[in-house]
Amino acid sequence: MNEIEAKIKALREELEQHNYNYYVLSEPVISDREFDIRLKELQALEDVYPEYADPLSPTRRVGSDLSKDFEQVEHRYPMLSLSNTYSEGEVREFYSRSMRLLNEPFEMIAELKYDGTSISLIYEQGRLTHAITRGDGTRGDDVTANVKTIRSIPLKLRGDNYPDRFEIRGEILLPWAEFDRLNKEREEQGEPLFANPRNAASGTLKQQNPTVVASRKLDAYLYYLLGENLPADTHYDNLQIARSWGFKIPDVIRKCYTLDEVFDYLTYWNVERKKLPVATDGVVLKINSLYQQKNLGFTAKSPRWAIAYKFQAERAVTRLNSVAFQVGRTGTVTPVANLEPVLLSGTTVRRASLYNADIIESLDLHIGDCVYVEKGGEIIPKITGVDSATRTKLTGNKVHFITNCPECGAALTRPAGETAYYCPNEAGCPPQIKGRIEHFVSRRAMDIHMGPETVEDLYNAGYIRNTADLYTLKLRDLLRLERWAEKSAQNLMDSLEASKTVPFERVLFALGIRYVGETVAKRLAYAFLNIRQLQQASLESLMQVSEIGERIAQSVLNYFADEGNLSLIGRLAAYGLQMSVDETVLTGRSNSLKGLSFVISGTFAKHSRDEYKAIIEQHGGKCSGSVSSKTDYILAGDNMGQVKLEKAAKLGVKIIHEDEFLKMLDE
Ligand code: IVH
């Protein structure tokens, strides 16, 4: 194999790996820009050396997000990508090429390029019939059930001037505020964080459980109408009309006649986009007239009538001083780069996330390297590349992921299929112990008034080695420590005492079982009522609880299989913590629903489904899973199943909503 052929082969393999990281794992390792540069490099080589062509080259496809769990559907019109550029020069070229090819005046439409996951929505007779992901561009996953949970997507259209059948394409996005909320929740549950809203959106769309999707508040912006009898003959007018049918069409799209107008739009949005509720990564320019679009046509991968200009992520160059490895509450080991402080989009950056071992490896980092730091869609800055040209003899050693825990020395483990390394020494590794205690005392858990420094001090002084030890603390122990005055010490002692009345579901959350966050803890508490029954639950019975899948169920089993955890729970119970759901909440508060049969469907705002089930049963009512002639009421939440609704209508079953239901209870 000659040098060129070897280079082409290596590039293809590398790009395939990045495609896999991005589309399958939703865990990109390099920036989009880096990827685009390499793809262009490969394209250029393939153009010059057609003898090494390969129909399976990464240049011949638009990436795949196919997953085997959804039904796959062929796109009537392939879902192509856009040709991307970072240079104003190429925008000028797009303009002059269009002028040359069309040889007549034309209008351009400038829009924002939304950074989410693309979707094709199919409407027949004004009703949403299919929602298909891009997939490999030719076939995509049918994610209709999930997409129906997105409130901004109309299920039935308004007005009556829409074609019998058409498609509308756009971007599904997770707004920044939701992204932050979701990551906070994942952090509390010891789950890996989403790197950016795009990954969070595509991960959410691939969820098997539509109720999880519904809880995440995705949004959708639409920007492309396709069909045989569209209402207008320009892109712009079609979008305006589609807006009247109920679609969320961005209102920041502009008609441009000159390049100057285009560049004004680019300059303006490069700054203003930071104020938008969703992530954007560029501007898309489209020729407005559909007739002219048709004349310009398509290349194999993208339309000639459009181009995407990507905003340059803000980037700085600085020196890598060292790499630290941090151990979290659940034992995850996170590599963090310590950098020579550098100014980046208005803040001084000292540290950057390195995510995992694969990323360190692919960057080929050495201590002392000059590295590129970017703050793109991500909140935490990240290292996107190394300037290897500046490497000298004085540059330090190559960075390797550690093999042993930096805190306790235990050999790290990496579960199959995961990118993270863990320290398995749960019982003896200090940051894990301290992290668990910090979680236990936190406000939403046991609400014991002590911060991380106090945990640290008490741990170092040898007073606490686990959460149960907190309840052996004496006022005089605290007063022996530095900085403790009588008043604050007493305050802590009082909050410890008060924590004994914290309800069972919060105690369960406080234990810090992996994947058991606040909501899951609540569900488990109501389903099993006390710690003893939960401890004895089988995998199957755990999985019967709504929204609890195998991963959570297995984690609960693992927790209770551990002798250390059992003795800890024994001690906590002995100190008087609540280990069962409050009796007064549970036992027959009334018989007001006696003889009534309910079916609960949909999602609710005030209580979870399990809570409603418990409430109905506490008041003497019965719950069943399916609607029949014996059903008296359907307690209906949002997104209630269509089948149940139709059946209820046919059988004349009464439908009540949660507020009415709660009122009925009061009465
Ligand atoms: S138009 C024929 N308009 O960018 C292509 N795409 O690389 C029609 N995107 O797959 C797409 N904002 O997911 C278009 N205003 C916009 C867009 C946009 C984001 C995404 C879309 C597409 C990708 C192209």
According to CATH, what is the topology of the largest domain?
D-amino Acid Aminotransferase, Chain A, domain 1
Helix content: 25-40%
What are the segments in which pLDDT stays under 50 over at least 5 consecutive residues?
A: 61-68
Strand fraction: 15-25%
CATH superfamily of the largest domain: DNA ligase/mRNA capping enzyme
Task: Please tell me how large the radius of gyration is.
Answer: 29 Å
Shape from CA axes? globular
* Secondary structure category: alpha+beta
Q: Please, how many helices?
A: 25
The name of the CATH architecture of the largest domain is 2-Layer Sandwich
Give a count of the beta strands, DSSP E runs of length 2 or more: 21
The averaged pLDDT comes out at: 88
In short:
With 667 residues, this protein is an alpha+beta fold. It is 37% helix and 19% strand.
Protein model, in words:
This protein is of the alpha+beta class and 667 residues long. It has 5 domains: 3-60, Helix hairpin bin (Helix Hairpins), CATH 1.10.287.610; 72-310, 2-Layer Sandwich (D-amino Acid Aminotransferase, Chain A, domain 1), CATH 3.30.470.30; 314-423, OB fold (Dihydrolipoamide Acetyltransferase, E2P); 430-584, 5' to 3' exonuclease, C-terminal subdomain (DNA polymerase, domain 1), CATH 1.10.150; 591-666, BRCT domain (Rossmann fold, 3-Layer(aba) Sandwich). The chain contains 25 helices and 21 strands. Strands 12, 13, 14, 15, 16 and 17 form a 6-stranded antiparallel beta sheet that branches. A 5-stranded mixed beta sheet has the order 2-11-10-3-9. Strands 5-4-7-8 form a 4-stranded antiparallel beta sheet. Strand 4 (117-124) and strand 5 (127-133) form a beta hairpin. Helix 1 packs antiparallel against helix 2 and helix 16 crosses helix 17. The radius of gyration is 29 Å and the shape is globular. The termini are far apart. Bound molecules: 2-(butylsulfanyl)adenosine. 2-(butylsulfanyl)adenosine binds next to strand 3 and strand 8.
